[in-house]
Design brief:
Elements: E1 6-8, H1 10-18, E2 25-27, H2 31-36, E3 42-43, H3 46-50, E4 64-68, H4 73-84, E5 89-93, H5 96-103
């Protein structure tokens, strides 16, 4: 049985983070974007995922892995690519950090 990628909204993600859940959150943007603004995920740029350099998360293949980017496009690609590498529970963050920043402006 093949796993189908799931989606999560920024509201759902923030609620889980605020509740103190341990989340495997991957940010698949570029280092410059990450430096500018991030929500605490592990930075693994999409290009690195596509060249199969996923050693640092290979132990998460059977765990939920939540992936976000700037708007939600690259993260879909990352989720689908990780599935081909054997990840069984990928979750795409709809709207990415653009949506996060729109919904949760810095206090």
């Amino acid at each position: 049985m093949r796993h189908i990628m799931e989606n999560i909204t920024v509201e759902q993600l923030k609620a889980r983070m605020d509740a103190g859940e341990k989340i495997n959150l991957i940010d698949c943007r570029e280092p410059s974007e990450y430096a500018e603004f991030n929500i605490g995920g592990k930075l693994i740029p999409l290009g690195q995922i596509q060249s199969m350099q996923t050693e640092e998360i290979d132990d998460l293949k059977n765990e939920e892995v939540i992936i976000h980017c700037r708007s939600g496009k690259r993260s879909v690609t990352a989720c689908l690519f990780l599935e081909t590498l054997g990840f069984t529970h990928t979750v795409n963050v709809l709207g990415g950090v653009l949506d996060w920043q729109a919904k949760f402006p810095a206090q």
